[in-house]
Design a protein that fits this description.
Blueprint lengths: L1 H22 L85 E3 L5 E3 L2 H9 L10 E9 L6 H9 L4 E9 L2 E2 L6 H4 L2 E5 L6 E2 L12 E3 L5 E2 L12 E3 L5 E2 L26 E2 L20 E2 L12 E3 L5 E2 L12 E3 L5 E2 L12 E3 L5 E2 L12 E3 L5 E2 L12 E3 L5 E2 L12 E3 L6 E2 L12 E5 L3 H6 L10 E4 L9
Parallel strand pairs: 2-3, 3-4, 4-6, 5-7, 6-8, 7-9, 8-10, 9-11, 11-12, 12-13, 13-15, 14-16, 15-17, 16-18, 17-19, 19-21, 20-22, 21-23, 22-24, 23-25, 24-26, 26-27
Antiparallel strand pairs: 1-2
Helix pairs in contact: 2-3
Length: 482
């Protein structure tokens, strides 16, 4: 009895299982995983950047294609959008901008076509430089300023730029404006950071002391400058190169203020092709000046080239007037060609000990001690000179001959202590002579004068020579003749 009951229960359970299986639908083709493939997830995967998901549906949105079997599964993580700071596949990581400054409106600068940053304010420049690595004078930063008026409020904008500096910098102001550069009180620590400067073409004038003691400044270009005042670049000890193609005048300095470039020992060959006047003390103590090409210079002030000890040759084709001590102490100067010079001040060539050749065909007057101590000078031919000052050629120990056919006045001791002087040639009228004109000139053997003037010279009560020295001159030597 018990056995029949168990058998009846088993049959009932089997029938129930069959009924449950009959109620379930057969699996479709899409529900079966591809052989050897990965089973698809039961939930939907959102495509990055794709259309909004249709809740409750596994079907793609309108216009989308059914994905093909075997497609690689899309990554679940985010994909970088275009414009991301991260590089795409195959791209290199961009180099960092030193200090983290990047061009744009937030940082106040843009880059020019060569990569030089351009700033429109001193504040933006200050922020930029503060973010740069510290540098040296040989590894400076190049920057441009744009839109600043360098003359407004007597140069407040320029002063602000100086104050913004914290690294060695070359400043390009070519896209700025203004007509005058003023002197400003600038800390020495800021001055030393300026290595080079380009001024805008609108700048026509630089005031006194504008760049006084800018000790690191090496190069300056001022393409529109016409007037430069005394002391403007005084004691710029590193200044090497000057470009001033329209400069017409450098004003006079004094003994206390000195001149525009006084004490610039490295300056050489300044580019000033239009310069008309070189004021007093302009290049005083510019001991590195070797070349000076000033084709339109007409006026040279007192002490203008004093102690330019490296200058060897000088040719100034239009120079008419040279002041006192203009070439004083130019100890390397060997040759001088000044074809238009008519007036030379006192001590003009004082102790130019290397001077051997003088070409001064129109010189009419030379001041006291004008050629004092020119110990290498061996001959003179001054065809137009009328007046020689006191001690004019004193101490010219190698001077052998002097030709002065139009001389009217010879000052005291003009040829004193010239032991090699053998002859001197004078004109038809005996000149007014000072005292001791030839004192110490033991070699003097002849004073040549035109034949029709010999009587006048012999009747002259001269204290400087004896009548036996008067010789007849057959012909007055010309400039350049032996």
């Amino acid at each position: 009895m018990k056995h029949c009951f168990v058998k009846t229960v088993s049959i009932i359970a089997l029938l129930m299982i069959v009924l449950v299986l009959a109620a379930c639908p057969a699996p479709t083709e899409t529900d079966r995983p591809e052989e050897g493939g990965t089973e698809k997830p039961t939930g939907p995967v959102k495509e990055p950047g794709g259309p909004a998901e249709n809740p409750g549906s596994d079907k793609p949105g309108e216009g989308e294609e059914e994905p093909e079997d075997g497609d690689a599964e899309k990554p679940a993580g985010p994909v970088e959008e275009p414009g991301s700071d991260k590089p795409g596949e195959g791209e290199e990581e961009p180099a960092e901008n030193p200090g983290g400054n990047k061009p744009g409106p937030d940082t106040g600068f843009v880059l020019d076509e060569t990569g030089v940053p351009i700033f429109s304010s001193a504040a933006a420049l200050k922020t930029y430089l503060a973010g740069q690595p510290e540098n040296t004078a040989t590894d400076f930063y190049k920057v441009k300023l744009r839109g600043l008026d360098l003359s407004a409020s007597e140069g407040e904008a320029l002063k602000a730029v100086y104050s913004a500096l914290s690294r060695y910098t070359a400043l390009d102001f070519s896209e700025c404006s203004g007509s005058v550069i003023y002197a400003n009180s600038v800390e020495a620590a800021k001055k030393k950071l300026v290595l080079a400067m380009i001024l805008p073409g609108t700048i026509q004038e630089i005031k006194s002391s504008a760049f006084l003691n800018f000790n690191s400044l090496v190069r300056l270009s001022a393409p529109g400058l016409t007037t430069l005042h005394y002391g403007a670049f005084k004691q710029c000890k590193a200044l090497t190169e000057l470009i001033m193609p329209k400069l017409r005048e450098i004003t006079d300095g004094t003994e206390s203020t000195n001149g525009a470039f006084s004490g610039c020992p490295l300056l050489d060959a300044p580019d000033m092709p239009e310069l008309y006047k070189l004021g007093a003390y302009a290049f005083y103590n510019c001991t590195g000046l070797k070349t000076l090409d000033l084709p339109k210079l007409e006026i040279l002030g007192n002490f203008a080239l004093k102690n330019c000890t490296a200058l060897k040759e000088l040719s100034l084709p239009r120079l008419r007037e040279a002041g006192n001590s203009a070439f004083y102490g130019c100890e390397s100067l060997e040759s001088v060609n000044l074809p238009q010079l008519s007036s030379l001040g006192e001590s003009g060539f004082w102790k130019c000990t290397a001077l051997q050749e003088l070409k001064l065909p129109r010189l009419t007057s030379a001041g006291d001690s004008a050629f004092y101590g020119c110990t290498s000078l061996s001959s003179l031919n001054l065809p137009e000179v009328e007046s020689l000052g006191i001690s004019c050629f004193k101490g010219c120990k190698q001077l052998v001959s002097a030709i002065l056919p139009k001389i009217k006045t010879i000052g005291n001791g003009a040829f004193n202590s010239d032991p090699a002087l053998v002859s001197i040639t004078l004109g038809t009228e005996p000149p007014d002579l000072g005292t001791e004109v030839f004192a110490g000139g033991t070699a003097l053997k002849a004073i040549y004068v035109p034949g029709d003037a010999m009587e006048s010279y012999r009747n002259l009560n001269a204290k400087n020579w004896t009548q036996s020295l008067i010789k007849k001159l057959e012909a007055i030597p010309q400039e350049g003749a032996d």
